[in-house]
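hey all, quick one before standup. I had two proteins in the batch that finished overnight and I want to keep them in one place so we stop losing track of which output belongs to which input. First protein below, input sequence then structure tokens straight from the run.
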Amino acid sequence: MRVVIQRCKNAQVTINNVAVSSVQGGMVVLLAVEDTDTQADIDWLTGKIVGLRIFDDENSVMNLNILQTGGDIMVVSQFTLFASTKKGNRPSYLRSSKPDFALPMYERFVASLQKVLGKPVATGRFGADMQVSLCNDGPVTIIIDTKLKE
């Protein structure tokens, strides 16, 4: 799995000009799934995301995690995170899983985050043409790949 995490002041997903979800303060997690991903990847990534100390404490130092701030999380599927641009100018998405594998993994990931957060996680709609708007706070943007664990 690969994610791009953006700390945000607010975010919203719109589909066909209808707002389908939003958050006020927290993070947006863009998620891509590949065929080698397992429940262990979901568990590790969930722990890493909720433990990230990317929110300011009373001294304006990034010392707090999402659990400590009570912030919200929005998860949006984004298969393009595994784009390969090695050859030519048209990205290849062969590394991204097909929906029959990716959708259940996406749903399990969202459920895992909800369990740890103890509240609902906002989502986009898997496979839909979505417009995602957000106010990136900081900006703080972090990329995590479960295979690299950097």
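OK second protein, same deal, sequence then tokens:
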Amino acid sequence: MSSEKPQWSYNEFLAYLLLYAANADFNINDEERKLLLSGLNTYDYNNISKAFDKSNDYERLQVIESFRDSYYPDDHSKEKLLNDLKKIFLADEEYNSVERAVFMGLRKVLL
């Protein structure tokens, strides 16, 4: 992944973040995929997926962190983002210890 910050809309960034969260248990199920696609068209989702697949975990977290000032500068927007994250973790009605740990890590990055 390039060291430049991607030029993504909020929905594209959110899809990337949710993809990171959905991938926490290394399995993206149908419910999670539907939620990921809800804010994007298939073309944009495929581009986000390619960017995600080309990067390692450290690079993914760097991308997520790089959007802090753009898409979640205040407490209200951070809470909205965390609530969106919770939705993806709960999409399959299971919230296991791996997902909890990833959520807590993302919470630290986002706050």
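Flagging for whoever picks this up: The mean pLDDT is 84. The radius of gyration is 13 Å.
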